[in-house]
UniProtKB/TrEMBL annotation:
Ranges where the ABC transmembrane type-1 domain occurs: 121-407
A GO term for molecular function: ATP hydrolysis activity
The entry's keywords: ATP-binding, Glycoprotein, Membrane, Nucleotide-binding, Repeat, Translocase, Transmembrane, Transmembrane helix, Transport
Organism per entry: Parnassius mnemosyne
Pfam families with a match to the protein in the record: ABC_membrane (PF00664), ABC_tran (PF00005)
InterPro entries (alphabetical): AAA+_ATPase (IPR003593), ABC1_TM_dom (IPR011527), ABC1_TM_sf (IPR036640), ABC_transporter-like_ATP-bd (IPR003439), ABC_transporter-like_CS (IPR017871), P-loop_NTPase (IPR027417), Type_1_exporter (IPR039421)
Protein family membership: Belongs to the ABC transporter superfamily. ABCB family. Multidrug resistance exporter (TC 3.A.1.201) subfamily.
Domain ABC transporter: 442-680
Statement: the UniProt record of this protein carries the keyword ATP-binding: yes
Catalytic activity: ATP + H2O + xenobioticSide 1 = ADP + phosphate + xenobioticSide 2
The name this protein goes by in its record: ABC-type xenobiotic transporter
Length: 683
């Protein structure tokens, strides 16, 4: 299955062959994180052309995760609107993190439902391993008691028995802990893998407007994809085993303590409420700290992605130090929050730990009184005290993982909130035509449109535009008049606020996006090529089949790039480098034209395809475009008179409407808006 992307004019993020082939050029989780972030970065930033691509990319990422799971077991877009016609509206620079959805612990546990067998075995083993410490404490107390026996032979015999008993407990505890670590580790990695794939797939299926929101920048979404899913393991997996182990320890410790000497046990238990309150406040402080850290990390990640993606521009401007300082400033709020909460967390954690010593002192003191006045056997007092306080100490160490647990719950809430968000642009349950092919005819009728992130700017106002089959329509007008918006509506990147966009008389919402986009070839001002061979880049233009080499050569000839390709030492197998850096602007543009033609589109969309080229390159590319337009519907945006004057119809847009329409000669004769623009020499 081949892969194609329709691209709006956005910042470029490298999509390397390492990401496409998923080669493990680093170790462990780094392989997975590095590749998936590159994939997500380019996909969000470049806008998917087909819904079918979601399945293709998700399958690629699924293979990455399988590799990562094996490694773990063995070791235990933002899409900017960024078009000329939209008037600049200042947006709030502050990037807010996605709020987490309130979720219960049991809902998080249900995420691990497919691994219930492994999780059940690990949970039972956790409870059993938790019994070890109280039993150990009781045996130690008994062991101390035998030394009061004057019969040395009997002491020797009991010492051997106790040694064997310790070995048995040690072996049983070791086996139980092995089961806990192994099965929870496996279940946790499967959960992380599943969540990442679900999250990745869900993000790619969102409407383009979702990525226009600054809160959903490429850096923020990559941080969630790599970090949030892993953080969920703090509320599942081995952390749950630790909590269950602590529960087993506490339950048995309390039972044994009350059984052997209930009065001493009650004295020790009196300190438990203080410990519980301390643990509660520590958990609350940790939760508040995590919220602030998440916001800071997402903001800083966004800045880092932008700087690295545009490293050549940063270097040319000499702004490296500025970006480093800005990055440090973005991280500072998290540092300040951590210092603030760590102070109080230290106090409450110290209190929760020291309370055990206070309880021990009270128990020993009261036990001594019972020995003197009630003649209670000191062995029973030791059993009661040691079992409860050693068990409580072990449980306290386990509850030290509470911060990770809270962080996992919050991460799960953020992931679930994203998964619950449904795309506003979806395929119909039953399309009007199955396997729609289209003829190249389109129509925009009574269109009103505002970008979701710029609701105060009316881009199109009751606009009407008929695009007959086989005609070349040129859209001209001042910056901000709505030219590129027309193309984005034809691609159904957005749905209009009112009115209808249709192909062959059928509204686009009644057709599958994959079918309608298959009929369109899109060439933009700055083509995006991938770090693959020339033949692969061209073949990516059609994901419905595997184009033959003969077809690739044919469209390369049509795009006027064949002679150049065969002059290269490797010909069509030449790797063009990241973002096509091995090719000139005109050469990249012609490869992009060939890629658009390989799918045999009925309609071509040209968004200033020659405006960024020099005169010589423009001439060659324009010849290729003229050949490509033959027999096809074409909608072009251009600023140069020489590019649009031969169009079948020129539409002059002003204030979101078609103000004038006609041939070059007709519009010049009218001496209206088009006449004024042409006199300026710039459309």
């Amino acid at each position: 299955m081949k892969l194609t992307f329709g691209v709006a004019k956005t910042q470029a993020i490298a999509f390397t062959c390492k990401a496409a082939k998923c080669k493990p050029y680093m170790s462990g989780h780094q392989v997975m994180f590095s590749n998936e972030i590159k994939l997500l970065g380019v996909l969000i930033d470049k806008q998917l052309k087909f819904i079918k691509h979601v399945t293709y990319i998700v399958n690629k990422v699924r293979k990455l995760y399988k590799k990562s799971a094996l490694i773990t077991r063995s070791t235990s877009v933002k899409s900017e609107v960024d078009e000329d016609e939209c008037q600049d509206v200042k947006m709030q620079d502050k990037t807010e993190a996605i709020d987490s959805e309130d979720v219960s612990f049991w809902r998080v546990v249900r995420l691990n439902a497919p691994e219930w067998k492994s999780a059940s075995a690990a949970s039972i083993s956790s409870l059993l391993s938790g019994f070890a410490m109280p039993l150990f404490a009781v045996i130690i107390a008994d062991f101390i008691g035998i030394f009061s026996n004057p019969n040395l032979e009997e002491v020797r015999s009991k010492v051997i028995n106790y040694a064997i008993l310790f070995i048995v407990i040690g072996v049983a505890s070791g086996i139980a802990n092995f089961i806990v670590v192994y099965y929870y580790g496996v279940a946790g990695e499967y959960l992380t893998t599943r969540l990442r794939i679900l999250l990745f797939k869900h993000l790619l299926q969102q409407e383009i407007a979702y990525f226009d929101d600054k809160a959903n920048s490429t850096g923020a979404l990559c941080a969630r994809l790599s970090g949030e899913a892993a953080a969920v393991q703090g509320a599942t997996g081995q952390r749950v085993g630790t909590v269950l182990q602590a529960i087993g320890t506490v339950v048995l410790a309390v039972a044994l303590s009350l059984y052997y000497q209930w009065q001493v046990g009650l004295v020790a238990l009196s300190c438990v409420p203080v410990m519980a309150i301390a643990l509660y406040y520590e958990s609350k402080l940790t939760n508040d700290a995590n919220s602030g850290t998440t916001k800071s990390m997402e903001t800083s990640s966004k800045l880092a992605v932008e700087a690295i993606a545009n490293v050549r521009t940063v270097a040319s401007l000499g702004r490296e130090d500025m970006f480093v300082k800005e990055y440090a400033m973005q991280l500072k709020p998290a540092l300040v929050q951590a210092k603030k909460t760590s102070h109080w967390r230290g106090i409450v954690f110290g209190l929760s730990r020291s309370i055990f010593n206070f309880a021990y002192a009270a128990s020993i003191y009261y036990g001594g009184i019972l020995m003197i006045y009630k003649h209670v056997d000191y062995v029973l007092i030791l059993k009661s005290t040691e079992s409860l306080l050693n068990g409580a100490s072990s449980a306290g160490q386990a509850f030290a993982f509470a911060p990770n647990f809270q962080k996992g719950i919050k991460a799960a809430g953020r992931i679930i909130k994203i998964l619950n968000k449904q795309s506003k642009i979806v395929d119909p349950p039953k399309p009007a035509i199955e396997d729609f092919k289209g003829s190249g005819e389109a129509n925009l009728q009574n269109i009103d449109f505002k970008y979701p992130t710029r609701p105060m700017v009316q881009v199109l106002k009751n606009m009407n535009l008929a695009i007959p089959r086989g005609e070349t329509i040129a859209l001209v007008g001042a910056s901000g008049c709505g030219k590129s918006t027309v193309i984005q509506l034809l691609e159904r990147y957005y749905d209009p606020d009112s009115g209808t966009v249709s192909q062959d008389g059928i509204p686009l919402p009644k057709l599958r996006m994959a079918d309608t986009r298959q009929t369109i070839g899109f060439v933009q001002q700055e083509p995006v090529l991938f770090d693959r061979t020339i033949s692969e880049n061209i073949a990516y233009g059609d994901n419905s089949r595997s184009p033959s080499m003969e077809e690739i050569i044919e469209v390369a000839k049509q795009a006027n790039i064949h002679n150049f390709i065969i002059s290269l030492p490797m010909g069509y197998e030449t790797n063009i480098g990241s973002k096509g850096t091995q090719l000139s602007g005109g050469q990249k543009q012609r490869v992009a034209i060939a890629r658009a033609l390989i799918r045999r589109p009925k309609m071509l969309l040209l968004d200033e395809a020659t405006s960024a080229l020099d005169t010589e390159s423009e001439k060659v590319v324009q010849e290729a475009l003229d050949a490509a337009k033959a027999g096809r519907t074409c909608v072009m945006i251009a600023h140069r008179l020489s590019t649009v004057r031969d169009a079948d119809r020129i539409c002059v847009l002003r204030d979101g409407r078609v103000a004038e329409s006609g041939t070059h000669a007709q519009l010049m004769q009218m001496q209206g808006l088009y006449y004024k623009l042409s006199r300026q020499g710039h459309m």
